[in-house]
Amino acid sequence: MARKGEGRIRAGGLFLVLGALLFGAAHAAAGTRVFTDALGRAVTIAYPPERIVSLAPAITETLFALGLKDEIAGVTRFSNFPPAAVEKPRVGSYVNLNIEAIVSLKPDLILATAAGNPQIQARKLQDMGFPVYVVYPKDTDGVLATIRRIAEIVGRSERGGAIVRDMRERIERISHRVRGLNRPRVFFQIGRDPIFTVSRGSFADNLISLAGGDNIAKDARIPYPSYNLEEVILKAPEVIIVSSMYVDTDHSGWLEEWKRWDVLPAVKDNRLYTIDSDLVDRPSVRIVVGLEKMARMIHPEAFPPEPSDQNKTSRQYPGFTATGEPPLRPDEGKILGRE
Known about the structure:
The protein is α/β, with parallel strands linked by helices. The protein has 12 helices and 13 strands. The strands form 4 sheets. Strands 9, 10, 11, 12 and 13 form a 5-stranded mixed beta sheet that branches. The protein starts with a helix and ends in a 41-residue tail after the last helix.
């Protein structure tokens, strides 16, 4: 026999499902457009959507960059950028979605990613009558195409196009600076015990290549292989970059451990760095900032000194103000974070 508490939860769940079906039917009768998502599915969307649920931090960042602060109804647990994102209702983590929380927000668009969201949960939301549009960027070009595509389906094509042009210009500027230079051997560390790194198929590997480096683990069979210490020493990296993937961890301690191995060129030349993992792992607008930082680490000789935070007056994140605040709406007079 079910306990009383369980009965209330199940009854509430049934109510939410019925409400979801009715809500979906109502919007089907309103103005709609059909878009093809990254899985090749035709998705009918109320256009423009007014209540959007994001199922990944990268999608959340893109929506804010497009000026959709008011239209974002819910986000996943680790959506922490821009600061306004933490004020939005939570719908679980992107690998463990809270279906009831999503349904209660009555979204007219759910943006999901094929790189992490459980397919069974995304399909369940779709079967309940919600339009679920799936994105799946696999490299930097895919990120640009995804931003442009999301902008199109939410009615922000002009702003999305401007953001993508800005990002592409910055990527090409970096490519121009590192073109023809020697490509230092790079070890990119994402795990400590055991040691994990990145290979082809990961965003970080793509960024290392664009930044003019040679990933020592690029030939591994999987995107995120484990590596033992002996392998790293034998491949003699000239640059070691530690990603701050683990929350509440002092990653500078990881660099201190590498300093014990002064046979490594990276240690001899003091070329040990940490980088914010959100800038290199999330396929969104800030990935161009991650690329710029990585290029400065790999080829410091090709770039002027980076201005201090106090002296930064130009934009930092595409689509955001210089302080990382959400952008103004298109009709509020300013464009793309340029103060």
